[in-house]
């Protein structure tokens, strides 16, 4: 049968329609459904990714906030003892008395008790443990030995408004002494300059001779558990040293007691610095970098950075009209906040500008946190930088200078 041209065209058109329809139904439509399903999954994964990124950002911010809070807590509590230790108090007070040439006739300690921050009620019993001990143990992942938790549970059952109040451990020491009035004032000054807070709550003196006074004073020691080990060296006891006398009833002074010269007793216990910096691993409870003025208890001059890698720090020291100024920055953080001028004025503690950096050895190969410090010295003084405790194989701290002299010493 012979087809006409028109019929051939119609057959071709019909074949094309069938082909297109089959492609649409069996190929395109399933692929489109699969594509739409993949797009929907992509949107879901994008949302999950955004949630994860938000959680990571929140976690990083939380960790940074925790380190900042830890830093503030450590700074606020560093004047308090980490625990009550009578043996160390006896040794330290005896040394201060000896340095002041004041003779301590006797030491009498009271019982240890917990002093609440707020005034306690009369019917409350004295506790011998700080209420913060359980909190610190829980923070460090240790089993709490403080029975205040049990008391709190019982009190909460009886009265929901009853809560444990923050408290500190306290012990009193009464010292009976004899010496000159000048020696007494020197001893009190040494208590004021002591690294920890010691309160003279009571002082009674009377004149026994023309140039000699006798009396007694009551000293108060306060301690709270610390969240870090910054005081781990404080109560170290070297048992190999010689203490006391071979014969406690011998009134003669030992040679080692009389060997202290005026030069020895006049030496400063702690060297002063103009600026201090600490550099730590990222897994520390504190920021990886902290920089500020030395002995700035207000921490107004402090800047911190918590960076798993290298933190770039710039310090600018300027001299103008016989006065010295400083400013510094680490990333977006600066001090003072307005860095357009010369900065904050400061007084130099010695003949040079001293800079102390406390570093830490690296934990492992993944520990790469550190500081690149650049000092711009536009003064007539040399900047002496001392680095303590840095890693010898892979130092955390690298220093460069521009302008005046910058001397670096690694211990």
From TrEMBL:
What keywords are assigned to this protein?
Answer: Coiled coil, Membrane, Transmembrane, Transmembrane helix
Q: Which InterPro entries match?
A: T2SSM_b, Transl_elong_EF1B/ribsomal_bS6
Bias (Basic and acidic residues) occurs at: 120-130
Annotated region Disordered: the residues are 120-166
Query: Pfam family example for this protein?
Result: T2SSM_b
Q: Which residues form the signal peptide?
A: none
Q: Which residue windows are coiled coil?
A: 35-62
Q: Transmembrane region positions?
A: 9-28
Query: What is the name attached to this protein's record?
Result: Type IV pilus assembly protein PilO
Q: Which organism is it from?
A: Clostridium aciditolerans
